[in-house]
């Protein structure tokens, strides 16, 4: 395959940055998108140029590290996959492909296509946990009976890998799907109900403080989420927040 | 330590936007019902309009509440849009919004601005003359004038066209707004899915009735 890549290049967080064109040839349709970028970087290094910086880790669709906004969509045109699982067969020979970093005020660019997603960590630190006594007499979670329906819903929410595709694809840069998944995974379980009021108030407060936008229910986040996190979680978080507002 | 809920929290703003939207949807249902009478019976329309125009509860309680609801919905819409724009200071070079969200959901501010412009025209046509008639000029009540005033406004094809275009955009606004308000208030179950379908019907039928009323009076008189 012969392609034209339009890649966002930015030396550092202070640099203004801009789109740079890279023609590339010899790309196999069965290559993953990241392998295609590896080929490009090898060519750039051989020419003595700076390789394109991009995030990646497990390359198995598990870690959520690879980001990239490809041809106007988070993780590219495929559905239910991260960028590492996106294959070049999704594109046609001769295509022009735009590759940009995830854009949001709360996700500042560090270099090229690498963004700082530590705002998600701070939201998680604000309440995305349960307090457990680990002094040696911890009770096995399996001893607490849990409704199968709730357990499944909680597990579905817990499948969120925190990749940030929801923020990147939302026209408002809203992090509601991510925060809602983290709130829901605990809100549905008996262990999580004890700190439910504090959790939702603190996490939403931190989400707002990080500068994410407001959700307008376009549903784009659900479509682009590689783990299929449902909008149902946002509705649940809204209920949890309203309930906590009255109690807290 | 827990944060307390704040009035400017994003979720509370969403809920406030949803509640004001539901309130305005209810008003629209009432408005279209009253207007539709005008194509059935001139006398009944005059009678109903006169009742609305001189009933103290409607004039001094419902009308101010409606005005507050409209102003709140628009102001909050602009505030949220400004905040959302600030949340992405640098735009994408290529953004394929159509790949994952409907036009109506992505362009509520555009349909909202068209509705705001329409309200300006609508107030100029009906509300300001009504206020002048009753409170500035102090003219004696006339229960037979309403139908004539309505029909007179739809003589002009440009005004009729502007009204129809605005109603189409109102339909797009309602198409997303109805279901979105349920989601914002935390509803996401079989009942909200059913109500959302009712909302899609409302988003088509109500603007269509407004268009029919406007065209009826344009071509019939």
The Rg value of chain B, from CA coordinates, equals 20 Å
Order of helices and strands of chain B: HHHHHHHH
**Poorly predicted ranges of chain B:** none
The succession of helices and strands of chain A, N to C, reads EEHEEEEEHHHHHHHH
Q: And the CATH topology of chain B? A: 3 helical TM bundles of succinate and fumarate reductases
What is the name of the CATH superfamily of the largest domain in chain A? Alpha-helical ferredoxin
Q: Oligomeric form of this entry?
A: heterodimer
Q: Would you identify the CATH architecture of the largest domain in chain A? A: Orthogonal Bundle
Fraction in beta strands of chain A: 5-15%
- Measure the end-to-end span of chain A: 58 Å
Task: Please provide the count of β strands of chain A.
Answer: 7
Shape of chain B: globular
Give the CATH superfamily of chain B. Fumarate reductase/succinate dehydrogenase, transmembrane subunit
The tally of structural domains of chain A comes to 2
Mean pLDDT figure of chain A: 96
Distance between the termini of chain B: 69 Å
Strand order of the largest sheet of chain A: 2-1-5-3-4
Distinct helical segment count of chain B: 8
What is the radius of gyration of chain A computed over CA atoms, rounded to a whole number of angstroms?
Answer: 20 Å
> How much strand content do the residues of chain B show?
under 5%
Domain 4Fe-4S ferredoxin-type (chain A): 151-181
Pfam families (chain A): Fer2_3, Fer4_8
Protein name (chain A): Succinate dehydrogenase/fumarate reductase iron-sulfur subunit
InterPro entries (chain A): 2Fe-2S_ferredoxin-like_sf, 2Fe2S_fd_BS, 4Fe4S_Fe-S-bd, Beta-grasp_dom_sf, Helical_ferredxn, SDH/FRD_Iron-Sulfur, Succ_DH/fum_Rdtase_N
């Amino acid at each position: 395959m012969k392609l034209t890549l339009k890649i966002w290049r930015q030396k550092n967080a202070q640099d203004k940055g801009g789109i740079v064109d890279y023609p590339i040839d010899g790309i196999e349709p069965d290559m993953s998108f990241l392998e295609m970028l590896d080929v490009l970087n090898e060519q750039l290094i051989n020419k003595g140029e700076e390789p394109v910086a991009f995030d990646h880790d497990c390359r198995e669709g598990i870690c959520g590290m690879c980001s990239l906004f490809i041809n106007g969509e988070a993780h590219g045109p495929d559905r239910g996959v991260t960028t590492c699982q996106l294959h070049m067969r999704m594109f046609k020979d001769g295509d022009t492909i735009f590759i940009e970093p995830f854009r949001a005020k709360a996700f500042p660019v560090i270099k090229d296509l690498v963004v700082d997603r530590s705002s998600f960590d701070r939201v998680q630190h604000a309440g995305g946990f349960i307090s457990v006594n680990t002094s040696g007499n911890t009770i096995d979670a399996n001893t607490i009976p849990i409704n199968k329906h709730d357990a499944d819903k909680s597990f579905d929410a817990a499948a969120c890998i925190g990749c940030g595709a929801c923020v990147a694809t939302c026209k408002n840069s809203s992090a509601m799907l991510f925060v809602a998944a983290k709130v829901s995974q605990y809100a549905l379980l008996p262990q999580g109900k004890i700190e439910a009021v504090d959790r939702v108030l603190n996490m939403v407060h931190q989400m707002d403080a990080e500068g994410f936008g407001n959700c307008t229910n376009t549903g784009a986040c659900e479509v682009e989420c590689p783990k299929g996190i449902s909008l149902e979680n946002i509705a649940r978080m809204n209920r949890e927040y309203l309930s906590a507002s009255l109690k807290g | 330590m827990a944060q307390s809920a704040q009035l400017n929290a994003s979720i509370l703003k969403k809920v406030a936007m949803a509640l004001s939207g539901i309130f305005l949807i209810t008003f629209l249902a009432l408005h279209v019902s009253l207007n539709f009478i005008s194509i059935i019976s001139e006398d009944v329309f005059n009678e109903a309009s006169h009742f609305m125009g001189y009933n103290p509860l409607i004039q001094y309680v419902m009308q101010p509440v409606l005005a507050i609801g409209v102003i709140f919905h628009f102001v909050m819409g602009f505030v949220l849009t400004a905040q959302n724009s600030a949340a992405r200071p640098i735009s994408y070079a290529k953004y394929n919004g159509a790949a994952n969200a409907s036009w109506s959901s992505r362009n509520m501010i555009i349909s909202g601005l068209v509705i705001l412009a329409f309200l300006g025209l609508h107030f100029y046509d009906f509300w300001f003359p009504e206020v002048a008639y009753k409170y500035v000029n102090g003219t004696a009540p006339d229960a037979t004038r309403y139908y004539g005033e309505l029909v007179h406004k739809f003589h002009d094809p440009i005004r009729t066209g502007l009204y129809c275009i605005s109603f189409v955009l109102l339909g797009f606004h309602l198409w997303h707004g109805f279901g979105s308000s349920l989601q914002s208030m935390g509803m996401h179950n079989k009942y909200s899915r059913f109500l959302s379908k009712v909302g899609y019907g409302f988003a088509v039928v109500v603007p269509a009735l407004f268009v029919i009323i406007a065209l009826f009076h344009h071509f019939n008189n």
